[in-house]
Amino acid sequence: MMRRLFWRIFAAFWLATVVVLVAFAWISTSNFETEKIPGLDITRLQAAMDDLLSRTSRELRHDGEAETREWLQAAAGFGSIGIYVFGADDSEMLGRTPAAAIHDAASTVLAQARQTTEDGPFATHDAGRVRARAIRGRDGNIYAAVAALEGSFLTRLISRRPKTFWTNIGVAMVISALFSLVLAWYVAAPLTRIRDSTRRFAEGDLDARVGQLRVGRSAEIIALAKEFDDMAAHIKALIESHRRLVRDVSHELRSPLARLRVALELARDGDEARVKSSLDRIESESDRLEGMLAQALELSRLETQQRPAQDTIALDQLLEDVITNADYEGAPHGRKVVLAECERQILVGSSDALYSAFENVIRNALAYTQDGTSVAVRLVRDPREAKNALISVRDHGPGVPASELVRIFEPFYRTDTARTRASGGTGLGLAIARSAVERHGGTIVARNAEGGGLEVSIRLPTTFA
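The chain above was modelled as a monomer; its predicted structure follows.
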């Protein structure tokens, strides 16, 4: 297929150069026939005709009819201007049968010449593409020489002298063919490389990339190659994310399913008290499974979403809603969520996705902060970049080992599996928060705060009210 593309491109370029050559030939021929010589009131075509008529006149006056016939035979069939010589009996010297216009022009000048004296002016005839002149030869007889532009443009084109015109045309064709081959290769080579990369990617090679092009480096081709590489990288990231999510979900489902089976067996064989305990366990594990699947679907939706919604969001109001609900959940343990600092800021994005992000970060902090302490939430302008909003959430929990501060945002990653399970977490909350924030062009990082606890900082590009 790409070979056919190469030859189609070559044919297009070559035909284009051929058309250009023909156009130049047409223009030069048209100018030759219509352009007047500066200072003279005749065209270049008429001047060429006059030169042929003058040459014919010299042949007849100085060399005679026999030499003129030889010269006419040598000149016949060459060039777009035909030269004819008629005798007093209106017969053409070489026995040719010219067009009626040529014959009429010869008859006209012969008739005019018979009416003039020997020393009178030569009779002439000018009809645009036919010019005729009466000539008195060396033998004293009167002849009519006629020069005529013959044939159509195509026939005049192919009637050029082979050693001049066709040699030049042949050279031009070879040069244009070589130039077209280079251009076709220059265009087809990067397209072939892009096609090969596309085929490899379609066959399952997710690492297939076009990379840097050595030839065909036009802005459009480079942009196309970059778009493909970006698309391939994005699709690879999505596929790997889905594979990892499926693998992690499958792994995480084993434990609650195993506990469900154990609880079910105990419920079947146990007494009434054990049955009640087993049913409670089944209910707890079912709720856990439902929550895990809901968060897994939310994470998958965020990672596959092309672009966030275009809602106008007041971040302060959104945080107040999240904090109100989270503070209510922490009340039984004496844990509070406090909006310690707040500046009104507005951005455009998905209110649902950002609500989920803030909720997961705050609830995670609420789950780990010590009883009787508060989770402090701040919304301010980013001191490092005035166009960004900075949301910080600080708890008073045990913190996270420095080596794991980045990994806590990975799906199902836990620093303390037993505690996370006890708190009811699935290991997906912070992963959902990161995905939602990154979809809005922001960043989310965690650090251990001074005096203990974990502080999560979210930066979002925003428009201030």
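Confidence is low (pLDDT under 50) at residues 417-422.
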